[in-house]
Amino acid sequence: ALGDQQLRQFHNDLQDLKGALRVFCRVRPLNTREKNLGDTVGVTVADPFTVSVQGAHGDPQVFAYDAIFDPTTSQVDVFSECRSLIQSAFDGYNVTIFSYGQTGAGKTWTLYGSGREPGISPRTCEEVFHMVNRDSDRLDFDVNASMVELYLNDLRDLLNREKDPPKLEFKSHRQPDGSVAVRLDGVHETKVESSEDLAKVVATGLGQRKVKKTNMNADSSRSHLMLVISFKVTDRASGRPRF
């Protein structure tokens, strides 16, 4: 049987083959307002990796991605493309997932979804503790979460309830192996011990966001949001930290 270290190596070799940087495109369906206005979808999914966009003038422009999610793609299908990255995080790799698009494109829906159709974030909360429970007989886990928003060029700690919270600053830190890591100093971290704990932390942070109605979105987030889940993993047998 393959050892744990070999399995981790095979898994992350596969992730490297898929690409350390991957770009996905999700095409959302028309909403009620757009349908009432008689709008039509301006993007055509040509194949699982290519979309064409019909401009106001000239021929359609074609764009290629690592994967395309058409308007019928479910939240489950989107998460399935990201799920393997959570294992990489447990193996000590830094992993970032972010959504980009104009107001009303569906960024918040993709990342957070709803109670009936959860997005990447709540599904990640469940998967993190599924893995914690899976390996708890041989590993100890210390899981913490923080949430920060960037609003009008200011960083706000969404989980710090102090009247005068410390100023948040990005600073570089020298690591034991000689590498340099960028960290956000002053941010409040909350220890979580279950997926329910983590979900409550996320709900608290979301409730503190700057939200305002726009012409394109009745519940538009007026800021950039960062959810950070960090863990320290210790080998029970040796007592040595893995990372």
Automatic annotation (TrEMBL):
Q: Which GO terms describe its biological process?
A: microtubule-based movement
Q: Which PROSITE patterns match?
A: KINESIN_MOTOR_2
Positions of ATP binding: G101, Q102, T103, G104, A105, G106, K107, T108
Looking up SMART domains in the UniProt record yields: KISc
The record's keywords, sorted A to Z, are: ATP-binding, Motor protein, Nucleotide-binding
Domain named Kinesin motor is located at 20-243
Entries under InterPro entries matching the protein: Kinesin-like_fam, Kinesin_motor_dom, Kinesin_motor_dom_sf, P-loop_NTPase
**What is a GO molecular function of this protein?**
microtubule motor activity
Q: Which Pfam families match?
A: Kinesin
Note the superkingdom of the native organism: Eukaryota
The cross-references to PANTHER family, in alphabetical order and at most eight, read: KINESIN-LIKE PROTEIN, KINESIN-LIKE PROTEIN KLP-3
Question: Which family does the UniProt entry place this protein in?
Answer: Belongs to the TRAFAC class myosin-kinesin ATPase superfamily. Kinesin family.
Question: Could you identify this protein by its name?
Answer: Kinesin motor domain-containing protein
